[in-house]
Amino acid sequence: MIIDGKVISQSLKDAMKIEVDALAEQYGRRPCLMVIIVGDNPASRSYVRGKIKATEYCGFDGHLVELPEDVSEATLLAEIDKLNNDPLVDGILVQLPLPKHISEDKVIAAISAEKDVDGFHPENVARLWLNQHCILPCTPKGIIELLDQAGVEMAGKKAVVIGRSNIVGKPVAKLLLDRNATVTIAHSRTKDLAAVCREADILVAAVGRAKMVTAEYVKPGAAVIDVGINRTEDGKLVGDVDYEAVLPVAGAITPVPGGVGPMTITMLMRNTIECFLNRMNNK
Ligand code: GUN
To answer: b or e along 54-71 (b: 16 or more beta carbons within 10 Å of the residue's beta carbon)?
Structure first.
């Protein structure tokens, strides 16, 4: 089975569009997401375009704030502070990576935790690990949603996550743990990685290396979630999984593109609605 993230994502966005019209009616305004981009990295530009498009599709307010590559850290922090203090702004996202002269840690911590739609703020990260109410990071949240929608049981299953990043590997492992999977976090230094992965009923690949996960990594019937975004020499977008080789072995698999990617943006929309509701209901 191919888990079609595009189709699942579209139906979630269609439902949110209707929900947002009802929220506008009820609260007298729409959820508002502000996206900040610094410089003109082509990949970042393309991601941000997708986020703004989804914002418009779902009927949110908000827009893109474009700052030049050489903007000072102080100016960026002042812009964030302005949005933090704007009562009509529900969500703030600063597209990463940032130019070297700006501290990403400082910028992430400067965004008000209640408006942190990415779920990157240390307060949200801590709350996730403490099982407290928090904003979940979009990609891990989207992966769990994909598994749910595909009917993949997590409770009692063995999950292996390859990758230990703050944005994907660690939080997705925590969310799988919360669904009562038994979770192993593997990485590039894991000994006999293929054998470790072959134990998994659910295999999440988030390493950033094209075609690293071959058929020998996959237990027959396993659900394989490909979080990789890699460019081949001829510019083609490919995941971390050797899709053609793994497809006949896996029980379910997400393609790249059209798997996890669209879900990340859709969960960003979901988080914006949640931030709006939390603020309107003063939680
Ligand atoms: N750069 C790559 N992925 C992301 C993301 O999910 N959020 C932000 N803010 N920047 C990113």
So the answer is: bbebbbbbbebbebeeeb
Using the 3D structure, point to which of 79, 98, 114 is the last residue of a domain. Answer: 114
Q: Are both 48 and 148 inside the same structural domain?
A: no
**The pLDDT value given to residue 262:** 97
DSSP 189: T
Range of the domain at 48: 27-114
Is residue 282 situated within a structural domain? no
Active site residue 10: no
How does DSSP assign 209-245, residue by residue? -TT-B-GGG--TT-EEEE---EE-TTS-EE-SB-HHH
Please write the tens of the pLDDT for every residue from 93-133: 999 999 999 999 999 999 999 999 999 999 999 999 999 99
Same domain, 189 and 238: yes
Kindly report the protein residue whose alpha carbon is nearest to atom 9 of ligand 1.
95
Active-site hit among 95, 157, 219, 226: 95
Q: Using the 8-state DSSP alphabet, how is residue 136 labeled? A: P
Q: Count of domains in the chain?
A: 2
DSSP letter at 241 equals: B
Nearest to 240 by CA among 152, 162, 164: 162
Same domain, residue pair 212 and 165: yes
The CATH number of the domain holding residue 240 is 3.40.50.720
Sorting pLDDT into bands at 50, 70 and 90, what band is 282? confident
Ligand 1 pocket member 138 (CB < 6 A): yes
The CATH number assigned to the domain holding 82 equals 3.40.50.10860
Q: Which of 61, 90, 118, 226 is flagged as catalytic?
A: 118
pLDDT of 283 over the 80 cut: no
Q: Is 174 one of the catalytic residues?
A: no
